[in-house]
Amino acid sequence: MAGNGEIKEDGGKGVKDMVMERIKSIKDIPPEENMLPGTPACAGCGGLLALRHCMKALGRKIVIVNAAGCFTLLTIYPYTPFKNSWLYTAMACAPAGAQGIRDALDILIKKGRLDPEEDLKVVVLTGDGSAYDMSLSSTSGAINRNLDFYYICYDNESYGNTGVQWSGATPFASKTGTTPPGRICPIGSELAKKDLFAIWNSHKPPYLATISPAHPVDLINKFKKAEQYKGPKLFIALSPCPPGWGIDSSYTVKLAKLAVDTGVWALKEAVFGVVTHTVVPKRFKQVEEYLQVQGRFAHLFKPVRQEAALNKIQEEVNEYWNRHKLLL
Amino acid sequence: MYRLRFHGRGGQGARVASKVLGTAAFLDGYYAQDFPLYGAERRGAPVAASTRISEDPIMERGVISAPDIVIVMDETLLQDPLTMPVSGIKQGGIVLINTAHSPEEAKVEYKITAQVLTLDITKIGLDMLGTPILSTLAGGVAARIVGLSEDSLRDAVKKILSEIITDKRLLDKNVAAALYCFNAITPAKIELKTTDTIKKKSTVISVPFEPATVSSPAINATGNTPLRMTGNWRVFRPDWNYDSCTRCMICVARCPDGCILVNEDGYPYTDYDNCKGCLICVEECPTNSLGKVREVHTKKVIGK
Question: Which end of chain B is more exposed for a tag (fewer CB within 10 A), N or C?
Answer without folding.
Answer: C
